[in-house]
Write the structure tokens for this entry.
Amino acid sequence: MSVIVGVAWIVFAVMWQTAGLPVPGLFGARADVALLIVLAWSYVRSPEDALVLAFAGGMALDGLSSHALGISVLALLPTVVLGTLRGARVLDTDWMMTMVLAVLATLSYHAILVALLAMTGNAPAPVDAFARNGLPAALMNAMLIPPLYLALLVGSLDMRIQRRQIRTND
Amino acid sequence: MIPRRTGNGTAFGSRAATRLLIVGSLSFFTLLASSLGFLAPVQNSLLLVLSPLQAAVVGVANPVDDFFDHFGQSGEIQTENAQLRAENEQLNVQLAALREKEALFNSLSNVLDLKAGGSDDRLLPASVVARSSQRYQHAIAIDRGQRDGIASGMVVLAPGGSVIGRVSAVLADFAWVTLITDPSSRIPALVQDGRFDGILTGRTDDNMRLELLPQGTTVKPGSIVITSGLQGQLPKGLPLGRVIEVSGSDHDLFPTVAVEPLASMRSIENVVVLTSFVPGGVPPYRGPTDTRSSTTPAQAVPTQAPAQQGRPAESNLPGTSR
């Protein structure tokens, strides 16, 4: 599965979400599909590819809105870094680690998004933004990341075999 | 490319860090340039590319979405439902306009020497080319821009005549319309039954709240909410929405009034821009003797699908039912 597939996937997801088509939601807050793809890609595959995805997804999000270009890309960047914490092994199971990272990534994404929107003059009320969006979205994203992680893991079987071969050669 | 895990257990090597710095800097400078307005042509081109893509995704997804939405129902019911919704919106708009005229007539019946307002509203039909149903923004992009005379602040109406939003950003060929359901939207509004003034605010859940109503007001579900014309942001008397729920106890300072928009924001395909209204100015007086207001903006909107229709010229219609 190449990065081109990832870019096509994230752009399609952004189109879907911005068009108002149904995405899983919780208490009125909807899942951040682009964020989940970037996190899963960074976690399973590589942060360098995830950066490309964050840039493509972020630009598509900003291109389909009236706010300034670059806001969503900047908000997605911490997600790439968080995705690389896989090897930290703080928790025993991978799926639980992905859930914790999804919560952290969502909160950082919303914090940066609201801050940048405020700086560019489109400020949503910060308390309302976090209570009505950030927190429910964090829970929703945490629930959705394990199946996405598993799907990407299955799709990345070739890469895992190559990685194992490199380790064996070392 | 196969990334190697580093010694500290993470896969974030120096090469990834360098790329992160590059992407971060690029995004920051893009944001800076975009905020200063230097990237308007890029945004215009981006929308030119992305809007057909989004339309294609919606075209593929809508039948699936409809299937799950109306599982077990026949197609006729869906069509009938859509027709009834459109008819209901138009009737509500007409009802609101009549009530508004009645109120004006009652309050001004003894001031007959007032000059009757002209009904020279100019309406420009437009098609919705993209939607931004994002978390902190509810907006649509229309296929009219600077070249068509669109300016920031212009009022945008649904085909039935209810307000759906205001132009918030203008590009060369497109314009972004911030919907009245957008969380940043604040519109001085009036409950028609009782004439209570308040502020209609957008919410993240696609509905709205009527806030800052006077204490002791009794608002009934089903009441129509119209623009009050205060602050000169919007002309007075345009229908905005319908009260769906009133909650709160007697001890509350203000009642919580939930309002839904009259037009279906999710499925709207054509709109009309009220190009003759100047935001911030004194709202034009609509006299009770104006009898030419039987036309709704529906007549200014072409009925073809957006992909098939041309770009009709600006129309000068006699009134907008208010």
